[in-house]
Amino acid sequence: MSKTEVVRKDSIVPIHPVENQRLYRQIADQISGLIASGEFEQATRLPSERDLAVQLGVSRPSVREALIALEVEGKVDVRVGSGIYVARRRPAPAIDPDRQGQGPFELLRARWLIEGEIAAEAARTRTARDLARVRAAVDDLQKRQKQRRDMDPADRAFHLAIAQACHNSALFSVVRDLWDQGRGAVWKRMEHHFQTPELRSAVLRDHRTILEALEARDPRAARSSIRRHLERVNREFIRGWKALDKAESTDPTMRAVTTPKSITRVGRLAQAG
């Protein structure tokens, strides 16, 4: 008997589609459900991210990404120096989940792993024309910073120029997709809250350091400099959340806020990190 004959022809197997849903989206959906059911009332402050992370069995960065996603949807208000509050009811904007992008902390980790090696390879394979493209992106970034204009186009051009210097279309596509698909509404809102003038100035310095490593054909320096650059962005985002943590820990009214028993774990962590 063949394997296909084991299953009766008249039987229907109750198989459901498997959803490849981002972790922060699962967390956001559960918190959204608790808001809709009244577990978290309007204009009240949510439990701390630490408490939510412990109850959900996930890392604190994943909770942060979920809360930012909920803010994009108009369901919570993130008040730096105060905490996260349930928004007063208002028409929910139509948000395409695909346009929210990857979780910022997950995205930065992926870029740290991938772009570090791409920069090292670019230092080995770059041509004079490649360097000219990278240098032009640095010059454009400096000009935009002085004019207080959006720096994203020059930032994107810089990272894509490094990938292009590898002369490998697959690697170029990876970096382009990380930028275009990852930096969605959640990333933009995170930047809005936590990007500082100091960070914008540091980005320009970092880009110049990376360019110098490429000019010197130094793969090790290129790898380490681009990784330090991405680590700096990650630290600035975390620093912004620490301001929220401080507000929650010093406000005595926060002690009365508890996490509902109806919350369901979506991760496997024994305790939040």
Percent in strands = under 5%
Mean pLDDT across all amino acids: 84
| Shape annotation | elongated
- Could you give the distance between the termini? 52 Å
For the biggest β-sheet, the strand order reads 1-2
Gross CATH architecture of the largest domain? Up-down Bundle
Tell me the helix content.
55-70%
- Per CATH, the superfamily of the largest domain is GntR ligand-binding domain-like
- What is the chain-wise order of helices and strands? HHHEEHHHHHHHH
Briefly note the structural class of the backbone: mainly alpha
CATH class of the largest domain: Mainly Alpha
- CATH T-level fold name of the largest domain: Four Helix Bundle (Hemerythrin (Met), subunit A)
Quick rundown:
The protein has 273 residues and is mainly alpha-helical. It contains eleven helices and two strands, in the order αααββαααααααα.
Describe the structure.
The chain is an all-alpha fold and 273 residues long. It folds into two domains: 23-98 and 247-256, Winged helix-like DNA-binding domain superfamily/Winged helix DNA-binding domain (Arc Repressor Mutant, subunit A); 101-240, GntR ligand-binding domain-like (Four Helix Bundle (Hemerythrin (Met), subunit A)). Helix content is 62%, strand content 3%. The protein contains eleven helices and two strands. The protein has helices at 23-37, 49-56, 60-72, 97-100, 104-125, 128-146, 152-164, 169-182, 185-194, 197-215, 219-250, and strands at residues 76-79, 83-86. It has a two-stranded antiparallel ribbon with strand order 1-2. Helix 10 (197-215) runs antiparallel to helix 11. The longest helix has 32 residues, at 219-250. It starts with 22 loop residues before the first helix and ends in a 23-residue tail after the last helix. Mean pLDDT is 84; it is low at 1-19.
